[in-house]
Each structure stands twice: as structure tokens, then as C-alpha cells.
Automatic annotation (TrEMBL):
SMART domains: HTH_LUXR. InterPro entries: AB_hydrolase, AB_hydrolase_fold, PAS, PAS-like_dom_sf, Sig_transdc_resp-reg_C-effctor, Tscrpt_reg_LuxR_C, WH-like_DNA-bd_sf. Residues 188-253 form the HTH luxR-type domain. This is LuxR C-terminal-related transcriptional regulator. It holds the Pfam family GerE. CDD domains: LuxR_C_like, PAS.
Length: 577
């Protein structure tokens, strides 16, 4: 093997790919060629992706992380000196760094996206287009100023975009006119000037650009009441004009340290709640659709395929579906798993507890990608509580050489490492995340999807790209993301199944796009043959994003399974579409 495996060449390609994501194909192609030369049976693959390769990858990633840390320190030093909300962005709007004001006012943190900003829907594409122009220099301009509106109001936000030179790639500095109002300021105003909470609110809104009419509308007070409160604020603070009062507010935002205020827990996001497990852990749960509707448990998938386009989410309510997305231990805002627990057994126990707490007698389960394994485990544990399982683009453990060769090269690389050398996985995940952080998730995904026409076409739809990036960004770029948790799950997903895992009492339907290079449909059909009760639905012209494109048809299938006619047996297998 030492004579056949040129791991130094692979490490060189890894470095190139981390600096330029468009060169990831070169790394995968080199690995794939060497794997084919070495042989694709388990023993050569185990040695090929073994501890020596892992050590060299770890060494290169240490260098890359040092470079990334230096760039991040430079960005953070720059942002910390700015009073207004400011961030460093990639070409596609991903957040590389953000100051505290950006986090407080816009919810923007590293790994987030400008799509999270509460701007008017029509203004988001304007910001994205201008950002791309300045990042690439396509119009010859290095900076520009935009006037944007916040969602649901006429409040204007000024944004100065400026290209940043240096580092491993070109970023854009975005400085806004929005100033953070520290939680310590109201206490200061009450102590020094005896301002009431209502008067403090008027002062805050005035300082952020509000007018008397706008403050009245925002607070539900009459314009006359707002004028009286504003007059009281001017008298108590000793300021003669509104302009002088605004200058005082700006001074306080600079001089009253934000750290003086106790840190409050962030407010739950829309659709978000937390459930307590018997051992005290919190599990994050998102809920969409009709709260009184028929329950559908939509699992997260290890790639973040839980989020559908907004039009599909709006359809949940019309169809009277209650779609619940639970996040497993260690993912997003769910607490980490207890040490020593099998992640999948823990996931099944948490799902059972979730159904009990929410008083869900039975539900349909949707399992994207590799999550089919956990769904089947749940069906075996709770045979009477699952109406149906829908596996979307399911990945299965590789049983034959032919199944391995059907995968696109990047999928072969990931699955070989997961199956034969899981110690490589944390380094691989870290390297991919580092590359995405530099260049943005959308840019990275466009490069990796270019080889699959159906997925490249689907990702060109802004709604689909936004849905996927929100899902994947939340999974892999949150503050609590753990490479260890992700690597442990990837390795378990690719272990051989117990022989009877697929023999469950509820109907199982596999939904596939036949251009999916991560989950080839031929392999799905071979698993259907192992379990004759399963059925198969597919679209030849779709790929990995089949549920994002064909969501109406997918929801038709789910809706039918939620309420089968009483006394009738499950429907027979559907024809391929």
C-alpha cells in the first residue's frame, strides 16, 4: 500500500481545496483514482483512508486553522471598533465575522447569512446583487451605499459596502447605520435622569431614526402622547432639541458598556420551542403548519434537509398538517448527548418522549437521506404509532462493489472514510467547514453540485437555495456545532444494518430523484427487493433536491398517509413517475 498510496499528493489537494473550493474536485478525483488503483474491497480501503492519512490531514488543517484564525482576528479587531452593526461577508452573503451590534440588531453571527436580516423582501435581492458586484469587482466599483427598508415598516437602514483586500480570498465589509441599544442603558437613564420605561422607549426609537408618527405606530400610543413623553425626556435630560437628544443617546451607546448588563437567554425564534427529556436535557423542536393538524415528524437529516421552500411550508397549514422538526442531541440548540450513549438509540428514545409529551398517538415520519435508519428503529420500537415512513433520497450502507461505484466521487470519499476509517471524519468535516466559512455556503454548493445537472438546476432557484442553506447553515455553523457528534453519526449511518431492520409494520415509501449521486436509485431498488413490503416513487429528471422541487407531489403522498380510509389495507406499490 505504501507504494500505491501517494497521500502527500492528497494532502496537497486538500490544502488547495480549502483555499479554493472550486478545486475540491481535484482532491476527490485524486483520491478516487488512487482508491481504484489500490482496490475497492474493504481491506485496501481501510488502509488507504487509515491513520497515516488522518495524521497528515490533521497537520494540514492545523496550518489552515491558524491562517483562518489570523484572518478572523483581523476582521474582529476591525469590527470591534465600530459602533454600528457591522459584519464581514462573502460574495454570497455568508457572515464571516460580525460585531455585537450586528448580533443584537440583526441576529447575524459567523456562519449566518444576510437572508436572516429583517429587511423588506424586495430589498434583500438588491443587497445580495450589490454585494456580489463589489466582491467580484464586476462593475469596477470597490464600494457603495444602499438605502434599505426594514420588513413591515418604512424605517430606513443605510449600508456601506466596501471590498476588503488581503487574506485567502476577497471579502466585503458591511457597516450599517443601526446602533445597538445596550440593556444597561435603560437602567442608567432611570438612575441618572429618572426616565420611565415608556420615556426610555421613546428615546431609543428616536435615536434609531424614528419619527413621532412612527414611534406612535410602533408603540400603539397616540401621537399626542408620544409628543408629551418626548417633551418630558428633553426636560429630564437637559437637552434642548431632538438632535441634541440623539447625540446624547449615541454617547450613551458608546460609553455605557454592554457587558454591564446581565446576558439574557436569547428569545425563542419563530416556530421554536424546547422540550425537557427525563434526564434533564433540552431538545429543540421546530413546528410548522396547523398546530391542531395531523402530525408529521420531519427528521433533520445529517445534511440539513429539513427545510423546504417557503411556499411548501405555507402549504402545511392549508393541508392541515402539523410538521414537527426535532433536532437530535448535540445538533443546533439541543443539548449534547450523555457520554457513552449510542446516538441512534438516544434519538429513538427522545422521539418517543417527544410524542408522549405532545400527546401524539400516531404520526407520519419523513426521513431525508440517511435518517431512514433512525425512522426504522423507531418503527420497530413503537410499531403501532407510525402511520407511515417516507424516506427521501435515502442513503444506505454499501453492500456491494457495484453500489460503491454508483456513487459520485465525493460520496465515495465520505462513505469510505465513514465505513473504514472514521477517525478521518472530524478532520474532513473541519476542513470542509473551514472552506465554506471562507467562501460562503452557496458558492461552495454551486461548485459541488455542478456535476449533477438536476441539482444544479434546482439550486439555481433562489427559494430552494435559500431553504437548503438555512437548513445546512443552522446544522453546521451554529455556536454549538460539534464535529465529534457529526462524525459519530456519519460513522454509525454507514455500518451494516441488522438483517430485520427494514421489516416494520407500517408502510415504507422511498422517494428518489434518479440523478441523485449521493443516493443512487439502483441501490434504493435493491433495498426494496430485500424488503418486499416497501414501495418506490421516483422522478428520472430530479436529484438530491427532489423534495424541494416536487414538494407538492411529496405532500400529496404524506397527506394521504396521514388519514388512510378506515378498514382498508395499505395501498399497493405506486408506479414510478
Amino acid at each position: 500500500m505504501a507504494g500505491k498510496v501517494r497521500s502527500w499528493e492528497l494532502v496537497e489537494h486538500l490544502f488547495d481545496a480549502s483555499v479554493s473550493p472550486e478545486r475540491l474536485d481535484e482532491l476527490i478525483a485524486a483520491w478516487d483514482a488512487q482508491a481504484a488503483q489500490a482496490g475497492l474491497d474493504s481491506q485496501p480501503l481501510s488502509e488507504f483512508a487509515g491513520p497515516g492519512f488522518a495524521r497528515q490531514i490533521a497537520g494540514v488543517l492545523q496550518v489552515l486553522e491558524q491562517l483562518q484564525a489570523a484572518e478572523l482576528r483581523r476582521a474582529n479587531d476591525l469590527l470591534s471598533s465600530m459602533l454600528g452593526a457591522a459584519m464581514v461577508l462573502t460574495q454570497d452573503g455568508s457572515v464571516v465575522a460580525a460585531n455585537e451590534a450586528a448580533g443584537r440588531l440583526f441576529g447575524l453571527r459567523p456562519g449566518g447569512s444576510i437572508r436572516q436580516m429583517p429587511l423588506a423582501p424586495a430589498d434583500l435581492p438588491v443587497l445580495a446583487a450589490r454585494l456580489a458586484e463589489i466582491a467580484t469587482g464586476s462593475n469596477g466599483e470597490r464600494d457603495g451605499i444602499l438605502r434599505l427598508r426594514t420588513a413591515g415598516s418604512d424605517h430606513a437602514v443605510l449600508v456601506h459596502l466596501k471590498a476588503m483586500e488581503g487574506g485567502s480570498c476577497r471579502h466585503v465589509l458591511a457597516v450599517t447605520s443601526e446602533l445597538a441599544w445596550s440593556e444597561a442603558i435603560p437602567r442608567f437613564l432611570a438612575r441618572v435622569f429618572q426616565l420611565t420605561p415608556a420615556e426610555t422607549e421613546v428615546m431609543r426609537l428616536l435615536a434609531t431614526g424614528g419619527t413621532v408618527a412612527g414611534i406612535a405606530a410602533a408603540t400603539g400610543r397616540s401621537p399626542g402622547t408620544v409628543r408629551s413623553q418626548l417633551h418630558a425626556v428633553l426636560q429630564k435630560t437637559g437637552t434642548g432639541t431632538q438632535a441634541e437628544l440623539v447625540r446624547l443617546a449615541v454617547l450613551l451607546m458608546q460609553s455605557v458598556p454592554a457587558a454591564a448588563a446581565p446576558k439574557a437567554l436569547p428569545a425563542p425564534a419563530p416556530h421554536q420551542r424546547f422540550l425537557r427529556m427525563p434526564d434533564g436535557r433540552r431538545v429543540e423542536l421546530l413546528g410548522f403548519g396547523d398546530p391542531a393538524g395531523r402530525p408529521v415528524i420531519w427528521m433533520q437529516s445529517p445534511y440539513g434537509l429539513w427545510r423546504l421552500p417557503r411556499a411548501a411550508q405555507a402549504e402545511f397549514s392549508r393541508r392541515r398538517l402539523r410538521v414537527l422538526v426535532p433536532f437530535r442531541a448535540g445538533w443546533c440548540n439541543s443539548d449534547p448527548p450523555p457520554q457513552g450513549r449510542n446516538p441512534f438509540e438516544l434519538a429513538v428514545a427522545d422521539l418517543r418522549c417527544l410524542m408522549d409529551q405532545l400527546r401524539i398517538g400516531s404520526a407520519v415520519v419523513v426521513a431525508p437521506a440517511d435518517d431512514i435508519r433512525i425512522a426504522l428503529m423507531l418503527a420497530q420500537t413503537e410499531p403501532g404509532r407510525l402511520r407511515a415512513i417516507f424516506g427521501i433520497g435515502c442513503g444506505f450502507p454499501i453492500r456491494t462493489d457495484a453500489q460503491y461505484r454508483r456513487l459520485i466521487p465525493v460520496a465515495r470519499f465520505v462513505r469510505a472514510c465513514a465505513r473504514y476509517s472514521p477517525r478521518v471524519l472530524p478532520f474532513m468535516i473541519r476542513g470542509v467547514c473551514a472552506s465554506i466559512s471562507r467562501h460562503g455556503l452557496e458558492n461552495y454548493m454551486r461548485g459541488t453540485l455542478a456535476r449533477v445537472p438536476a441539482d444544479a438546476r434546482a439550486f439555481a432557484d433562489p427559494e430552494i437555495a435559500s431553504a437548503f442553506c438555512e437548513g445546512a447553515g443552522r446544522m453546521f455553523f451554529g455556536e454549538t456545532f460539534s464535529e465529534t457528534v457529526a462524525a459519530a453519526e456519519f460513522a454509525l449511518f454507514h455500518e451494516d444494518w441488522p438483517e430485520d431492520l427494514g421489516r416494520v409494520s407500517c408502510p415504507v415509501t422511498l422517494i428518489h430523484g434518479e440523478q441523485d449521486g449521493n443516493a443512487p436509485f439502483e441501490t434504493a431498488l435493491e433495498y426494496c427487493a430485500l424488503y418486499p413490503g416497501w414501495r418506490y416513487v421516483a422522478w428520472p429528471d430530479e436529484g438530491e433536491f427532489v423534495a424541494h422541487v416536487r414538494w407538492r407531489e411529496v405532500l400529496d403522498l404524506i397527506e394521504a398517509a396521514c388519514a388512510p380510509p378506515p378498514g382498508l389495507p395499505p395501498r399497493p406499490g405506486l408506479p414510478r413517475m
